[in-house]
Amino acid sequence: MALLKMKFTQQRRVRLAQGLWLLSWLAVMCGAFIFCLGVYLKTELLRRAEVMDNTEIHVVPNILMMVGLASIGTNWVASRVCQDSLDASRFPRWKVLLLAWFAVAALLCCLLIAVVVLSYALQGRLEESLKVGLRNGIRFYKDTDVPGRCFQKETIDHLQMEFRCCGNNNFKDWFEVQWVSNRYLDFTSKDVKDRIRSNVDGRFLLDGVPFSCCNPASPRPCLQYHLTDSRAHYNYEYQSEELNLYSRGCRQALIDYYMDLMNSTGPGVLSVILIQMSVLLSLRYLQTAVEGAMALENPEGESEGYLLEKDVKQTFEDCKAKVLDMLKLAQVDAAAAEVSPGAADAEKTVDNTTEKAASPTPAS
Amino acid sequence: MVVMKMKFPFQKRVKLAQGLWLLSWCATVAGATTFTLGCVLKTELRRRAEVMDNADVHIVPNTLMIVGLASLGINYFASKICQDALDAGRFPRWKNFLKPYFAASCFFTVLMLLAVIMSYAMKGSLESSLKIGLRNGIRFYKDTDTPGRCFQKQNIDRLQMEFQCCGNNDFRDWFEVQWISNRYLDFSSKEVKDRIKSNVDGRYLLDGVPFSCCNPSSPRPCIQYQLTNNSAHYNYDYQTEELNIYLRGCREALVNYYMGLMNTIGAGVLSIFILQGSVLVSLRFLQTAMEAVAGKENTEIETEGYLLEKSVKDTVMEYLNPVLKFLLLTNQVEEGATTSGATPAAT
Question: What is the average pLDDT across B147-168?
Fold first, then answer.
């Protein structure tokens, strides 16, 4: 009992082939779109690579790029198949390839769904990575003379100005590190000596932030130093001052930015999944309908198209049986070293197995 | 004396019509591109409208937009005409339309060239407009509580950060204005009182710049205040310090930016001008070649095409004569009226 059987007259088969040809070229465009999306996301992640500790989040754009390229090839093959489908002499050569094609197309759909899930699931990892990366960036801010770290200052400054954020969690992170290099500290001055003696590690800590934390929207010129001392500045109250510096932390700003980016690509990816699924189903119908028509006495007569030859449960049972058979045969092969009968059987079962293995996937 | 005569056998006419049809569609796309370029330039100029004193330079994008729209119409008609050109029955209906069409097309094509020339010529006007606009911006930097000026500070800060520049000519412009509002000055402090007494207008001047002048590429944390005082900062020399704040003035930065933009757009528009010119020249040849065929029995004869029937001077006079006659006629009537008015007065 076939699954989702439909009748196909010659006219309908022709229309299906033409429609599928257009749809598969649309799917090629969608594949290119997915690839470009992956490239864009990867570029954006690479731009801020200096404040990220690990590259686990890169699996999302990597998968997108791979799937995009694979889907361009796959859908191009689909368009060739349906160009040949109405020609009885050229269609049979695609028979074996179609089984592999269905498997690949189903795999691509699964990968795209996995990408959407991963983009939400990896948020925690991204946050961890940014936390460590930003902490290091703030710690090495002053090391503009150390090779390998000399651009940290510029990177952190540009980051804070572009994303309108300050520090890791907030601006108080700058109070806990020495961000002024020793080269610019006058060690004979009393203030410097006091500050260095005030903590165990001998660091020059101060309640000030770099200029890149300054908020241009503030009505008063930026106050960078002596932030916790309300008496150090005229008409200044530390607790109630809101506009002077950016109040958001850079970790939060970057997470928001990347999550927005990935969320906005979500609907696009979902629609590409739908298009790919419809190409897959249409091609299966076309294949079965054309094969049915070729088996008839009058090739232009009505034939039946279906998704699966038997129903889901039976197909699954058949598939399992064939796989077990193949495994058993393989064991017998290894034990008895009888290559020829085993190879002939194995070839037949491989054909049937791949066919049955390909067919349940659209239904599942 | 005909200008640029060329022989056109039948095959050549057919090829000309086909080529011109393709060319006119390319030119339509080019016209749309011109319009888009005009819009882009206008948007970029409007974004920085607060630091520009006048809008004289807007004539360049306005002209580009007008020319772009006009060229869409011109090329649409060009394609229609050359579609009908090879059909002897349908071509004559365009006869009366073609003379004003060519006049209008030449006008708009010349306007396109003028737009490119203007984009270079307007540099001086843009520079003086920016000079005044930036000077005002720096003067009103502190007025964050005055309605109408409360966003000057934010604009100037963001401008200096984005274009990596400081002040009008350079950072010393900030030394000459009070850029800290009186609301944040402690008038009981000795330092403030000294500074205010040090100049005639009673302004709080200091040798410091806002934070937006700071250069992130500097290896040391930004020094904003007491810039001219070497002893105020450790290991600091005012004369040799280069990376601390941006040394470039914002006027120069903005002029360079807009000139770069207009040069790129100018190059594109120049090539579109050449395309448009070739469309018009080809259409003229096609028109004159087809007019010679009209009325003949054998439409496949060889004809001659030309650009102008008479020489350039004669054609110009031919077009201008009606206009001059109209103007001179009105003048003559006026002169006649004054003389007839004067004679009764004399008698």
Answer: 94
